[in-house]
Amino acid sequence: MTTMTEASVREFKMPDVGEGLTEAEILKWYVQPGDTVTDGQVVCEVETAKAAVELPIPYDGVVRALHFPEGTTVDVGTSIIAVDVAGGAPAETPAPAEQPKAEPKAEEPKPEGRQPVLVGYGVATTSTKRRPRKGPEVTVPAAAQAVQTELNGHGAAVPAQPRPLAKPPVRKLAKDLGVDLATITPSGPDGVITREDVHAAAAPKAAEAAAPVVVEAPAAAPVPAPVVAYDGARETRIPVKGVRKATAQAMIGSAFTAPHVTEFVTVDVTRTMKLVEELKQDKEFQGLRVNPLLLIAKALLVAIKRNPDINASWDEPNQEIVLKHYVNLGIAAATPRGLIVPNIKDAHAKTLPQLAESLGELVSTAREGKTSPAAMQGGTVTITNVGVFGVDTGTPILNPGESAILAVGAIKLQPWVHKGKVKPRQVTTLALSFDHRLVDGELGSKVLADVAAILEQPKRLITWA
User: Fold this and answer.
1) How confident is the model at residue 393, as a pLDDT?
2) Concatenated DSSP letters for 194-220?
3) Which one of 154, 325, 418, 436 is the catalytic residue?
4) Is 418 a catalytic residue?
5) What HEC string does 428-450 produce?
C-alpha cells in the first residue's frame, strides 16, 4: 500500500464566511475518506446562525479524514477535513470503535477569552461552547476508503449509489418536505433535480398526511367527537440553533437594552386598496409584485422623510445618537430556516416601480433560502406584516440597532363611519414600536399618524413626497 508523509497532508479549517459569527454546524458531507477532490470542489454544507453555505476545498488530493460528523457545531479556525495533496491513498487508521475521540490538534489551541470570529463583529471576549459530538470521529479503515460500498440484505457488497444532483435550496426543500432525492427522476438539464420535481414527489405524501387517523366508538355506544390519534410521543425536543438561535439572542438583547414603546392606530385603507388594483393594471408595473405592502412601505418612507429623527440608532459606547441620512428598509420574512429580516438598501431613493421590484426580489430570494448575510446587515427601520396570518396587530420588538419597527395587521372589511354614514370599509390596525431613548412620544406619534394619513388618502404620496 502506498503511504503518505505528514508533510503531504493539508488541514482545511472551518473558514471565516463573513457573517459575524464564531461557529457553524456541519449539515452535510459531500465526500468521504478515500474520495479524490479537486480545487474548488464543494465538500460540505454548513449552517451558521444566518445562512447555509457550501464550502469548496482549495486543494487537489485524496480525502484522508473527516474530523467531525454531520450535526456537529465547530468553531471557526478548527480543522474539519484532512486532504493528502500528494494524491496517495489514505493511510490506514483504526476503526472508530477502536480509538478514542480525536481532540483538537496541539497547534490549534484557542486561548481562553479570545476566539477567532467572522468579519464584522471584532473578537469574541469569551470562549465559544461546542455541543457534544453526536458520534465518534468520522474515519474508516483504508480498505473501506478505497472502495465505497454498502451491504445489501444478504451480506453482499454492492456499489454505493451516486449522490443525486440538486442545488442547496432544492436539497433544503426536499429535507423540509420529507422527500428522498434518490427516489426522484430529475427533469432539469444534465440530470439536475428541480424544485418542481421535489414538489411533484411531495404531493402524494402531503395528500396522505392531510388525512388524519380518526378513532370512533363502537356502534352500540354513544359516538363521541372524532379524536386524532397521535404517535404516542408526548414531547418533541428541538435543538435551538441556526437562525432561531440568532433570532432569540437578538430579541433578548433588544428587549432588555432598548426601552420599547408601542402605539396603535386603526385606519380606513379603502382608497389604498383601490390604488393597488389600479397599479396592477398600469404598464409601469407589468411583471412586478403590487400589493398593499408596497404602498405601506412607501408611506413609511415618506413619513420618515417628514420626520427624519426617527431614522437613527443609539451608540451606547460613545453615548451618541446616530442619525441616518439613508433608509435601509427591513422586511421581516418567514422562511423554512426561521424569521429573517433582509433589507432594501437605500429604499428612500427608489421610485415606486423600483421599490416594487426590490420587494419582489427580496421575498423570492428569502423563500428560496438564498438571502445573503450582507442583505441582512445595516437595516435602519423595519416592517413586519402580521396581517398575512390573519392577525389584527401586535407589539413588535425592535430589530437590534434600529429605532423603529412598524407592524401591519390584517386588512378586513368592517363597518366604518364614512362621510357621516356607517359603511363597509377596508380597515387595518398599525402598530409602531420605537426606542424611547431616542424617540419620544411626540416623534413616534407623528410618524405613525403620517403613515395612517397616507394610507387613508394615498394622494399624499404625491403631495407630501
Assistant:
1) 93
2) PHHHHHHHHHHHHHHHHS--EE---TT
3) 436
4) no
5) EEEEEEEECCCCCHHHHHHHHHH
This prediction's pTM: 0.55
Specify burial of residue 185 (Cβ count, 10 A radius: 0-12, 13-18, 19+).
exposed
Question: For the chain, what's the residue count?
Answer: 465
Q: Where do we find the cell 408526548?
A: 234
Helix residue spans in 126-211 (DSSP H): 142-146, 168-177, 195-210
Q: Kindly provide the b/e burial profile for residues 74-103, where b requires at least 16 CB atoms within 10 angstroms of the residue's own CB.
A: bbbbbbbbbbbbeebbbbebeebeeeeeee
Please tell me the predicted confidence (pLDDT) of residue 5: 57
Give, for 74, the enclosing helix (H) or strand (E). strand 73-75
Mean pLDDT (whole number) for 396-421: 94
Contact indicator for 420, 268 with CB cutoff of 8 Å: no
| DSSP assigned state of 115 | B
CA angle at 289 for the pair 386 and 264, rounded to the nearest 5°: 30
**What SS3 state is found at 363?**
helix
Longest dimension (CA), the chain: 94
DSSP-assigned letters across all residues of 308-355: GGGSEEEETTTTEEEE-SS--EEE-EEETTEEE--EETTGGG--HHHH
Which residue type is seen at 123?
V
Q: Give the full edge-to-edge strand order of the sheet including 9-13.
A: 9-13, 79-84, 61-66, 36-37
